[in-house]
Specification:
Elements (H helix, E strand, L loop, with lengths): L1 H20 L9 H66 L2 H39 L2 H25 L4 H10 L1 H19 L1 H7 L1 H28 L10 H18 L12 H27 L6 H22 L4 H12 L28 H34 L17 H19 L1 H35 L7 H26 L5 H40 L3 H4 L4 H16 L4 H24 L8 H25 L8 H15 L6 H11 L5 H11 L4 H11 L24 H5 L1
Helix pairs in contact: 3-4, 3-6, 4-5, 4-6, 6-9, 7-8, 7-10, 9-11, 10-11, 12-13, 12-14, 13-14, 13-15, 14-15, 14-16, 15-16, 15-17, 16-17, 17-19, 17-20, 19-21, 20-21, 20-22, 21-22, 22-23, 22-24
Length: 747
């Protein structure tokens, strides 16, 4: 059916073509021509078709003949294999008998090796001698070259022996013994290498090529080690003395050298030199920095990069330093030594003077260096330092006070400062000691500095209490015999001035060493110290005034007596004595001196008024009253003049005190008794602390008021208003009036 379809298609195609050719009438004339052309075309196609079919048939024929040949060949091969198989089965026994030949071959290869090494074997003793000479002459590279040849000969012989008969230890030992001297040579050479390595930091400056040779020898040995270990994996054989591990040994030697270098810097002990530790640490600092700089700039170039020699050295030094610092920390160190050590470990080590030196960067990064001693050890050292320091400070303060007390009984005046104020060296000594310890603590860190400051101020607090007690004892001793000590007044002044100096020193110490945020923690202790200092100064001032008034006592006793009325010079003497004392008191520092002058003024007036209230005199008539009152007014003026002079006209409000004497004089002077009540009530309104007994005493001194009149005045006064001066400090309440006693009545 396919054929039919094809025929149909062909006819259809032909019809189409003919239709295409004959589209116009004139083309019919050419029909013959067309037919011929188509006949030609057809003949050509048929010829091509035939040729193609012919060549395909040829190909098939050839293929068939080749397949035929191949089949024959396969049959032949099969036959041959059968023959070979038969032969092989027959010859198995023959192969078994060839073992002797195999052994002979092995022996031959060993003998070949021996023959090859014969020259070397016979010349072993001579090469050993030559190598020995080279080592002695320091020609290490050549010596090593010969040593390698010797080892190579021995190792090859041993390897052949091992291959032939690994169990035959006798022959192995024979070879080993024959090459015995060679082992000594290797050790001798190693000894030379290690000497160079130990001195590498010196050698690298003087003779770097020597160091490079040593490194090359070590590298060669490392290479041989690797080769031998590889062979061991494959064959199980390794020559005696391998692997030598010379590179590892070299690093161990370097490490030991570094340790010795650091330990060896301690030249002194505490017994021979107080500064032994400072010196030891300074030498370490210098050595380590110098060594690392050499390692970085020179040593690095003599070693292959994979040795990472600089970093290895850096770690060795760090390790050795850490070990050394721990040893030092474990010793029984004194306070100043603890500080030296901690300051070095925490600050110097990473500073620009050492590991932070710009020439060591960027290889050395101080931030990535571990701590030389653990925080735990640091804390232990710090707490030991604080407890030692505490007992030291207590001891120093006690000693300072003892020394100062010895001065108090001297027969020479205390020294004066540049402004002429008396003082002793106590505050300077105490604060110099505090300063020194604070500066030392500051070397370590802020935290310690603050702790030490707190400690100093805390101890200062208890010290001031002792100072106060000592000043009190000093006064009591003096009162037993007022002639002694000779310079009592001057030293008391020095005590007062020291209080002021202490106050100022505490402030400046805090300003200098205390961080602002710590202020609050200290304000309480500061306030209490200030209070103590004020008490000491106040007590000392009052002791000095007691001195003055003990000297004034006989003169005060003369006031308001007949002798006084007759014209004694008691007040003149009082003024001279006070002025004389105040020449010394001029050496008291300002705040206290001012208080002192005011207090003296007040006490003089109080004593004067007390003398009036003692009723030692009772004026007989108006004449005496006038004379007495004028005398009182004059003496009030004398006092006013004296104290104006003492305050150097600074016009302190002390005027009012002398006014009281004048106001009393007015009451005495009054001539008209009917105005007495008025005068007294004016007095009371000004000075409201006047009591009834004061008025009674005053009227008794006047001498002209009857008992009833006194009674009336006193009773009426109670209702009166008071208008005191706002600045008035009550003065009468300190003054007691003696009540009449029996002996007084009998007089």
């Amino acid at each position: 059916s396919t054929m039919e379809e094809t025929d149909r298609e062909a006819v259809a195609t032909a019809v189409q073509r003919v239709a295409g050719m004959l589209q116009r009438p004139d083309q019919l004339d050419k029909v013959e021509q067309y037919r011929r052309r188509e006949a030609r075309k057809k003949a050509s196609v048929e010829a091509r078709l035939k040729a193609a079919i012919q060549s395909q048939l040829d190909g098939v024929r050839t293929g068939l003949s080749q397949l035929h040949n191949a089949l024959n060949d396969v049959k032949d091969i099969q036959q041959s294999l059968i023959d070979v198989n038969k032969d092989w089965r027959q010859s198995i026994n023959t192969i078994e008998n060839l073992k002797d030949v195999k052994d002979a071959v092995v022996q031959h290869s060993q003998l070949a090796a021996a023959v090859e090494n014969l020259k070397n074997i016979f010349s072993v003793p001579e090469i050993v001698r030559e190598t020995q000479d080279l080592i002695e002459r320091g020609e290490l590279l050549q010596a090593h070259r010969k040593l390698m040849d010797l080892e190579c000969s021995r190792d090859n012989l041993m390897y052949e022996q091992y291959r032939m008969d690994s169990k035959n230890t006798h022959d192995m030992n024979l070879i080993h013994t024959y090459f015995g001297d060679m082992q000594k040579l290797s050790e001798e050479l190693a000894k030379q290498l290690w000497m160079v390595v130990q001195r590498s930091l010196v050698t690298v400056r003087r003779d770097p090529t020597l160091l490079v040779s040593v490194v090359r020898i070590i590298e060669r040995e490392e290479k041989i080690d690797r080769r031998m270990l590889d062979r061991k994996k494959q064959t199980g054989f390794i020559p005696p003395g391998r692997p030598k591990k010379w590179k590892e040994k070299m690093f161990n030697i370097l490490e030991r050298t570094v340790s010795i270098r650091i330990e060896g810097t301690q030249a002194d002990t505490r017994e021979s030199d107080k500064m032994w530790l400072v010196r030891h640490l300074e030498i370490i600092r210098k050595y380590v920095l110098d060594d690392l700089l050499v390692a970085k700039t020179l040593l690095d170039q003599c070693f292959p990069p994979h040795y990472d020699i600089f970093n290895r050295m850096l770690n060795m030094y760090h390790q050795a330093l850490s070990t050394r610092m721990q040893e030092l920390a474990a010793e029984d160190l004194e306070a100043n030594e603890i500080v030296s050590l901690l300051s070095w470990v925490l600050n110097t080590y990473k500073s620009t003077e050492m590991m932070g030196n710009s020439e060591l960067s960027p290889e050395v990064d101080v931030n990535s260096l571990d701590a030389l001693i653990s925080q735990n050890v640091v804390d232990q050292l710090l707490s030991k330092y604080m407890s030692t320091l505490t007992s030291n400070i207590i001891g120093w303060l006690r000693k300072a006070l003892e020394t100062d007390k010895k001065d108090w009984i001297k027969e020479t005046e205390p020294e004066a400062d540049q402004d002429g104020y008396y003082q002793t060296t106590l505050p300077a000594i105490v604060f110099q000691m505090f300063e020194q310890n604070l500066q030392v603590a500051a070397q370590i860190n802020e935290d310690l500095k603050t702790k030490v400051l707190l400690l100093c101020l805390q101890q200062m607090n208890s010290f001031l209490t002792r100072y106060k007690d000592e000043a009190q004892l000093y006064k009591e001793e003096h009162l037993k015999n007022r002639q002694y000590p000779q310079c009592y007044v001057q030293y008391m002044i020095a005590v007062i001035n020291n209080c002021q100096t202490f106050k100022e020193s505490i402030i400046s110490l805090k300003r200098k060493y205390l961080r602002i945020e710590m202020e609050d923690t200290l304000s309480i202790s500061h306030t209490s110290m200030d209070a103590t200092l004020d008490i000491i100064a106040k007590e000392a001032c009052s002791s000095l005034l007691d001195e003055v008034f003990m000297d004034l006592e006989p003169h005060l006793n003369e006031l308001m007596t007949k002798k006084w009325l007759m014209g004694s010079n008691a007040v003149g003497t009082i003024c001279v004595t006070v002025e004389d004392y105040f020449n010394d008191f001029a050496k008291i520092k300002k705040p206290y001196k001012k208080t002192m002058t005011m207090e003296a003024h007040r006490r003089v007036v109080v004593e004067y008024i007390r003398a009036i209230m003692l009723k030692r005199i009772s004026f007989k008539n108006a004449e005496e009253r006038k004379e007495g009152a004028e005398r009182m007014t004059k003496e009030a003026e004398q006092f006013r003049f004296l104290f104006k002079k003492l305050t150097a006209g600074s016009g302190e409000d002390t005027e009012g005190l002398c006014d009281i004497i004048e106001a009393i004089a007015e009451v005495i002077k009054l001539t008209d008794p009917s105005l007495l009540y008025l005068e007294v009530s004016t007095l009371v309104s000004k000075y409201p602390d006047i009591r009834d007994d004061h008025i009674a005493a005053l009227l008794t001194v006047r001498g002209d008021a009857s008992r009833d009149m006194k009674q009336m005045i006193i009773e009426t006064l109670d209702q009166g208003p008071s208008q005191p001066n706002p600045n008035y400090v009550p003065i009468f309440k300190e003054i007691t009036v003696p009540t009449l006693t029996v002996p007084k009545l009998l007089k």
